[in-house]
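thread: overnight batch results

M.L. [08:02]
morning all. the overnight job finished for the chain we discussed friday. pasting input first so we're all looking at the same thing
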Amino acid sequence: MTGSWEDEALCAQTDPEAHYPEPGGTSRDAKRTCLACEVRPECLEYAISTEQRFGVWGGVSQQELRRLVQARHGEAA
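M.L. [08:03]
and the structure it wrote out:
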């Protein structure tokens, strides 16, 4: 792999709107893309370490990501 993980991410080749669903919308298609992506672990780690609050990152929804960030900080979910 060359370049940054962002350059290798499958989501960089798809519609970015899919990774930022409207409230009440589905993240199913974005998660499906993530599951096939080789850099999913790097993406998820980035999202947790930078406390991303919006979008699907590393195959997890906004709610799931929020819980992971809270767990990393030792907070109750």
